[in-house]
Amino acid sequence: MPQRFSERVLAWWRRHGRKDLPWQREPTPYRVWVSEIMLQQTQVGTVVGYFDRFMARFPDLEALATAPVDEVLGLWSGLGYYARARNLHRAAQEAHVLHGGLPADLEALAALPGIGRSTAGAILALGHGRPASILDGNVKRVLARHAGIDGWPGETAVLHRLWALAEERTPEHEAGPYAQAMMDLGATLCTRANPCCGDCPVAADCVAQREGRQRELPAPKPRKTTPERETWMLLLYDAAGAVLLERRPPSGIWGGLWSLPEAASADEADARARELAGRTPATWQALPPFRHAFTHFRLRIHPLAGRLHGPAAVGVKDTAQVWYKPGQPPPGGIPAPVASLLEQPARAAATNDREDISQ
DNA sequence: AATGCGGGGTT
DNA sequence: AACCCAGCATT
After folding, report:
1. pLDDT tens across A274-312, in order?
2. Domains in chain A: ranges and CATH
3. What's the pLDDT tens digit per position in A336-348?
4. Which bases of strand B have any atom within 7 Å of the beta carbon of a protein residue?
5. Alpha-carbon torsion angle A161, A163, A165, A167, nearest 10
6. Which of A7, A36, A230, A262 does the annotation list as catalytic?
7. Is A174 labeled as catalytic in the residue annotation?
């Protein structure tokens, strides 16, 4: 029977854990608090460049509480999530007035703006050495794997299970080192992509390790229904029946391929035609729209056909345009949905993607 | 319960 | 180019 979970984690941390991050030197509740706020959804390496500068300017809670908010935001700029800085400043003022400093209990801490359950636990455990639990991304990952907890942690039920486990496993003594150890375990061994289970102190009874499910846990956020974008593709024909093609930018969707000019809406078709060919067709004919699926989104294509009358079309503006006669060898690669559109403009939808015609 | 916040790293 | 990161507040 292996040792208690927390004992193994702590023993590992004493040998391999991180102990000299900026906020671990002189870990006062105030410094722990500031670091925890900076570290919300922000990686350690990023925060390292900000923490000491911030502490030099605002060495204690009173310095922060009495500073202008703009100065706080100034030292935050580049970190992102600027509401964190505003909340930090407000919380400093509230704590200063209401408690004469940072409170030292879970409820009062979590009542301050920007401090939730996990950050409050971190301040107590890391800053006061009191028994309290944290549940950040690292701990979620370690616990979900070790206990084999299925489901996305964003789901309330899963989150509740994880919190229950987190508290159940927090030792009465050394909660601070334990919290740090769990984060270090998640950050250095039990990483998202390539966990080093061979070095893990709790691999012996890890469900994910036993079942080879490290890659599946914790479950990722369910993918949203692939977003749908739409575009209007212009079939601009000249008097000879050639259609104008445009070479797409080298990178991005259909990079470097020859495709139809596009407009962001039917209303912009005329303006695009003027840009491209110097004039506009008398009328546009709307062909049946259809969908094309990419990995990350679906594109709803509205073909618009128009014939340019009068003398032969003006010469192409640059090498990124060509008048292409359907049936001739193409100037280069053509995206499949565009190719089918060129072959059978009126039937493109039917031949390309029958089920996607509607809506 | 779902979404916005945000710049940066990883894959 | 998603996806994620020492989460929390808001809706």
Report:
1. 988 888 999 999 988 877 766 566 677 888 999 988 655
2. 5-211 (1.10.340.30), 228-356 (3.90.79.10)
3. 788 878 886 654 4
4. 1-3, 5-11
5. -150
6. A36
7. no
